[in-house]
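#random but structural
TW: two for the price of one
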Amino acid sequence: MTRRSARTTRLVGAILGLLMIGTGLRAEDQPITEGRQPASDEQLKYWLQNMISFHRYSLDEAAHANQMTPDETVAACRRLGIDPTHPAPVLTVGRLLVLPYPGGRHPRIGFLDGAVRPQRETKVSVFTPWQPEDRARADYIVVDVPEAIWSNLGLTYLAHTHVPTLWTKQGIELPPLEWERRDDGSCWLARELPNRIRFTSHVVPRADHVDMKMTLTNGTDAVLTDLRVQNCVMLKEAAGFNQQTNDNKKTVAPYIACHDESGGKWIITAWKPNHRAWANPPCPCLHSDPRFPDCAPGETQVVQGWLSFFEGEDVDGEIARIERLEWWSPRSPASQ
């Protein structure tokens, strides 16, 4: 987007009072994010509601994310009955709110050159239970499930542009996908790679936590080993949690937790079987990265994940309580 079109956007927003929604996105930042044009009015309405009503996107961000002009975005809002001046409240009806992340706004603060054009199909937004009174913004974290998959074959999948994968080295471009949104509020994704490795991701909101599950099926004719997964919890849009430091992090592997500025609110995540737990301050983000067991031809392996919010002083006690739930076991609802 040019500087002239950005000025036009600001003018349109000033007239309609719409640019108060969202944080705004500088024109020079936009090329590092992915945009997708909805194929129908039904899809356009969903994504505009997702972006503007829930994620509090500005017109600039929504226009870029939908590969539209700002004028087209304003017209679509009018035609589809979306009022950007009255964003939706973030309500939890018996469960946390999980939505597909719409792209267009980079989910990191820093280390942007390490995640150019992040793809939205692996990312979900989990809205925190601590929403601001001012509806001009919303507090959420972006969970990448997965950000990357490695195997003995090399970098087998990557959800953004940074380093070459098995497929980019061969000039193969993977088709874009979208989350399947289910009636229980969960998001489900399946991708089959060109060598017939297939993985799925399932993110299920519960009343007080989010269950996560990944499967990997080996459609090749050889055993897959060294199956490491990188899953990222990005904190940029969670006020109070997004300092670019590790001083507010606590690791009790496989659990890693981050507290807000008050020290009394926590975000906790874990995956099993676990490879390592760590954090990246520039992003900032949390990682509890799992490892699939070795996978024979025709076999499917599973890893389980957890994400929750906690308010209190005894985070060690909370982590111990979560561990006693044995959420990774076959009896867990996420394993079903």
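TW: number two ↓
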Amino acid sequence: MAFSVGIKRRITGGVAYGRPPYFRTMFLANTGPTENVIFAPWHDPTWTIATHCSAREFCEREPDWYFDMHRPELFRSPKNWNEHYYSWLKHLQTPIFMQERYKEIPMAVRYPIERVLQEIRAYFTNHAAFMIALAMQEGVKTIGIFGCQYSADTEHSTQRGSLEYWLGRFEQYGGEVVLPVKYNTVLNFPSTLYGYESHDEKGNLCGDYKPKPRIRPAGAKPGHEVPAKIGPLTPEARASVKSLPNGDAPDWARYERLYGKDV
């Protein structure tokens, strides 16, 4: 009850934050739940802190913004990190970027997706990318990424490219990117130079460039994978390929002579 009274006294709720400029300073920190979130500038008032809701328990102060760009079917469902997440959203006292201004979430602020897509490339595969693109339009000068690695072998591995792309775009426009030195893999993995340090004297990939195929044994939990054993390159196991320009079939015999029958 106290939560709803507090929102009622504000009257406007998320409406008060629903128009630009959204960020109160020229320094924006995007924070997530991975280990280097501890290096975020929590107590520096010159930084605006934007946090994914799943990282709230790691915050050292209430952030200036939350963001959850998922569909209602997702944010209305219990989370493994907060089984009462939907109720928490409805009682939130901090503005949160969402797809729409949902009536049951008074502090919801509609993300200006049309404005963003009109001006820049539609390449968004994670929450941090949405925040970076908006910050660029707001004239933010410095962006920090803390606790957002997108390195897990899950959906996150397909989301990371967009984060790296937008950080590059931001630097191209003259912005400064701040990344933790410790526990960081964003724009830092592999840390060695391809071509110069990616192969050994025998021409084999080495270090972080060396492929590490993994499989999960039946019944094993995520994170308990073992090296995969890949069998012979049978016709059934071969990946489909496009036809060659002259219409010929791929020369699998030559491939096997060069690389062997095993992948």
